[in-house]
Amino acid sequence: MDLKIAVLSGDGIGPEVILQAKKALNAIGEVYNHEFVFEDALVGAVAIDQTGNPLPNQTLNLCLNTDAVLFGAIGHPKYDNNPDAKVRPEQGLLKLRNELGLFANIRPIKPYQALLDASPLKREVIEGVDFVIYRELSGGVYIGEKKLNEAGTAASDSYEYSEEQISRITHLAFKAAQKRRKKVTMVDKANVLETSRLWRRLVQKIGESYPDVALNFLFVDNAAKQIILNPRQFDVILTENMFGDILSDEASVIASSIGLLASESLGHNKALFEPIHGSYIEATGKNIANPIASILSAAMLLEFFGLINEANKVYEAVEKAFEHKIVTTDLNSFSKFGTNEVGDFISNFILSKDDLLYFNNDNVHIGQSTIV
Ligand code: IPM
Ligand code: MN
Question: Which ligand 1 atom is the nearest neighbour of the CA of 242?
Fold first, then answer.
């Protein structure tokens, strides 16, 4: 298969983790005879620095004319700490989601066997957890009109949803549940929000056309607690934009590190793949960022294009890295491995490099290992 992939590495650790994802994809291409052509483009704070625009037209046009987008990370403290900034890096991602019509952000949460004791949550709570968050991406308070009065003393963000926005992701969530454990949990705040009541009415109605799927509802405050207390109860969580954003960061604790969580964002004919973590500016260039979320996002890209064996190879490589303890320091504070070494291990595993067979954990130090 030939795929043209727009690579928007973005800010902070984005470029270094995306580099590892590219290495994994190149290895897959080599082993399975696919041609992946990458084209880099600017987004976020780096794009503002160079062009004044967090999503330059050239970047947008590239994304509109490629098969998929691989996205790194976005954000910079110089904007986070300046509420008066006129342009913000995040606007680049929000505009891109809007222009590509991306409406469903899908975030799988499943702890790896080898990492069950790495999470701050108890093993007996997280063992066997396997759920996926369907986060609505095109509406809600993210998108509604933003206002600040002239005196700068009062502000509002409007929070809106239409039936069309709700129904398209709801169908995707139910279809996903049909292929899984057949349960959808809708998370909302219907005891307070009118938008949530619209969601509930419609989701209930759509649910009737999926009689094989059980549907239940949780208020978001309770859901936030249940994710920590009893996460095994979930199969597919369906929720609106901001609740999905917050709950997925919370759920990353189950996986033990946010550096492991990948996502795909789908539109009618566009798809973007990105780790859910941020730009972690303090770690930039230090070779300490966990590249697994980006590598897994690349695996989701492969799956999206029906390259199932290829995706499984990447998942297997990631599992092997954990088994051999080739992990970054967020997973093991004593680890001697960095972003590059983890990425090298994974691409070498995919390429079935012989030196891996003689891999000796004791000999592996940065600069001395067979995989460096
Ligand atoms: C995410 C991020 C973004 C979001 C930011 C960077 C705008 O946190 O993808 O989860 O809030 O959607
Ligand atoms: Mn987020």
Answer: 11
